[in-house]
Known about the structure:
There is one protein chain. The chain has helices at 3-13, 69-83; strands at residues 34-44, 56-66, 93-104, 108-109, 123-135. The protein is an alpha+beta fold. Strands 1, 2, 3, 4 and 5 form a 5-stranded antiparallel β-sheet that branches. The longest helix has 15 residues, at 69-83. The protein is elongated.
Amino acid sequence: MNATDRLVDALRAAGLAVGDGQPRDERGALTGRYVVVRPRQVMRGEGSIGAPNADRAPEIQITAVGPSRRAADQVAEQAEAVALGDLESPTGWSWSQCAVYVTGTATTTEPLTDPATPEAPTWFRVDVYRYYLTPA
Length: 136
């Protein structure tokens, strides 16, 4: 299992819904809260002189989604506690230091893409975390 898989498992164990969407009601309003987890680039380096590119620093993006700004913020804060918490090491790797928060966006609404089929607004917040790995 890689770092993204470990984070997804930890988020689910904490009771968060993880996926690419949740059901909507007949008006198109989101009926739940969830997070979408996406791996980003993997930075290399910081290894030893003999193996300078052995270490990895993958970044993982968590998009927290909810039917209101408050709901999206609450699920983002729950996800942050997990993302910066104690995760099991990925297969073949060990953590070389603690995870760090890299960047994020303000909580905002999703723009409507089709005015012919209006939906209730969906709120989201994007946060990115970096993990530091070294071969086990």
